[in-house]
Design a protein that fits this description.
Elements (H helix, E strand, L loop, with lengths): L3 E11 L4 E12 L4 E5 L6 H8 L7 E6 L2 E2 L7 E4 L11 H11 L5 H13 L15 H14 L4 E5 L7 H17 L3 E5 L3 H7 L2 E6 L4 E7 L2 H4 L3 H6 L1 H20 L1
Parallel strand pairs: 3-8, 3-9, 6-7, 7-8
Antiparallel strand pairs: 1-2, 1-4, 4-5, 9-10
Length: 257
């Protein structure tokens, strides 16, 4: 049985005068410990699908199951990391870090110690009493990742978490996230517009078309790339070949729609 199953998901946004179908008959499954990416033209429903998996939105049709259980409400097994870090500016990094533990009522000395070790893992030791405005953008995103992982989610949803960063910081954070998720055996879903990022970090890539959003192809990243950290994967000869192929596929979708 697959770890996460999205079965025949469709979703329509309704207003008083219009109905816009964002997703149509999406079905896919993801194994435990797998890292997958969603790519596609703007408006293809990638973020909507991520929100449905997180139970932030209930789909018009279809179901999402995690370990065989239907997802109907926000679940502690799911962590969500966004483009903005959304750290509370009036709280210290440590207070932000422990926030999820308090909300989920698992704020124990053991969980706090584990959370602080994550902060150290993110090379943020010594920032515990700092406020977010005292940290760089990359440091804040690392703190946000530590906060997301502090509650020990089984699956991590990443909605363009690196897109607001400069290129060098982005590459460093890709490397850190990839290594951390491998170390903790986490399952991850990444929404991105960056083809290179999808190839460098993923085991599989799901390509979506727009109007309405639908899954058109699934790509298995070659094993020689999957075994490498993101920066090293970008240097491999197979990377450029897959990048060009995906770029043409994506370009044809954007031209068509």
């Amino acid at each position: 049985m697959s770890f996460l199953v999205v079965h025949d998901i469709s979703h329509t946004y309704f207003t008083e005068k219009t109905a816009t179908t964002a997703l149509e008959h999406i079905s896919l499954s993801i194994d435990q410990g797998e890292f997958v990416s969603f790519i596609g033209p703007s408006g293809c429903g990638k973020t909507t699908l991520l929100s449905i998996i997180a139970s932030l939105i209930q789909p018009t049709e279809g179901t999402v199951t995690l370990e065989g259980k239907k997802m109907q409400a926000i679940h502690p097994a799911v962590g969500y990391m966004l483009q903005q870090d959304y750290l509370f500016p009036w709280k210290t990094i440590e207070e932000n870090l422990f926030l999820g533990l308090k909300i989920m009522e698992i704020d124990t000395p053991e969980m706090r110690a584990s959370a602080l070790s994550l902060l150290e893992r993110m090379d943020l030791k010594g920032t515990e009493k700092h406020y977010p405005n005292q940290l760089s953008g990359g440091m804040r995103q690392r703190a946000a990742l530590a906060r997301t992982l502090a509650t020990d989610p089984k699956i991590l949803l990443l909605d363009e978490p690196f897109s607001a960063l400069d290129y060098q910081t982005k590459l460093r954070l890709e490397e850190l996230v990839w290594q951390t998720l491998k170390e903790y055996s986490k399952t991850a879903l990444l929404v991105t517009h960056d083809i290179g990022e999808a190839i460098a970090m993923s085991d599989r890539i799901f390509l979506f078309a727009a109007k309405p959003g639908r899954l058109v192809r699934t790509f298995l990243v070659p094993s020689e790339l999957r075994q490498l950290p993101p920066f090293a994967a970008r240097q491999h000869p197979s990377f450029s070949e897959l990048f060009q192929f995906l770029w043409k596929e994506l370009d044809s979708l954007e031209t068509t729609y």
